[in-house]
Write a structure and sequence with these properties.
29% of the residues lie in helices and 18% in strands. The protein has 207 residues and is α/β, with parallel strands linked by helices. The protein has helices at 37-44, 112-115, 119-125, 138-151, 175-185, 192-206; strands spanning 9-14, 50-56, 97-101, 130-136, 155-164, 188-190. Pathway: Cofactor biosynthesis; nicotinate biosynthesis; nicotinate from nicotinamide: step 1/1.
Length: 207
């Protein structure tokens, strides 16, 4: 069993927001999106060195919305609306920081690293060497964050049962393809139980 040392491992909760669930059916609901809350909360109870979250925070005229430049998605997670709120029951009080993204109307930022280029350097300066990613959507914002963090030299795990994905063929965003690419890059796809066991093994190895 691989080990994760809690003192150098962080958790990244990606876009666990109402607008990506059937709580806001007219936005961009991802199948099973709201159902990830218990699994994410189990992760939040684990001994990570820090916990970061991302939050889509779009203006009403964002370029990705229908009728705009990219014309890919219905309006979703618009700043200050219920769709932009974190999911009910999510233990968001455990977040050390919330990194908003997608707030520039002319710039699409799937990953926190796209909106905040210094994010990886910030984690490194905080002593982080490994990152566990979870949230919505597995094959979009979670995948791009995992990919970029892996490229920056971090060990990256993606907690599949604390995430939810959706195929969007028009945008070339497919779950199977994203997982295959992630695995090829060295991202470890795992369950919450496996993450917990790895953190436990990491604690024992330090004892």
């Amino acid at each position: 069993m691989p080990a994760l040392a809690p003192a150098v491992t962080s958790l990244l909760v990606v876009d666990a927001q109402r607008g990506f669930t059937d709580l806001c059916p007219d936005e961009l609901p991802v199948p099973g999106g709201a159902a990830i809350v218990p699994a994410v909360n189990r992760l939040l109870a684990l001994p990570f060195a820090r916990v970061d979250a991302t939050q889509d925070w779009h203006p009403p005229d964002h370029r990705s919305f229908h009728g705009r430049a990219d014309d890919l998605y219905p309006p979703h997670c618009v700043a200050g609306t219920p769709g932009a709120d974190f999911l009910p029951g999510l233990h968001a009080d455990r977040f050390h920081a919330v990194w908003r993204k997608g707030y520039d109307p002319d710039f699409e930022a799937y990953a926190v690293t796209a909106q905040h280029p210094g994010f990886a350097a910030f984690l490194r300066a905080s002593g982080i060497r490994a990152v566990v990613v979870c949230g919505i959507a597995t094959n979009i914002c979670c995948f791009f964050a995992a990919r970029d963090l892996r490229a920056a030299g971090f060990e990256v795990w993606l907690a599949e049962d604390a995430s939810a994905g959706i195929d969007i063929p028009a945008a070339g965003l497919l779950q199977a393809a994203a997982k295959a690419e992630g695995q090829a890059l060295g991202v470890r796809y795992a369950s919450v139980g496996e993450v917990a066991a790895a953190l436990g093994a990491g604690q024992k190895s330090r004892a």
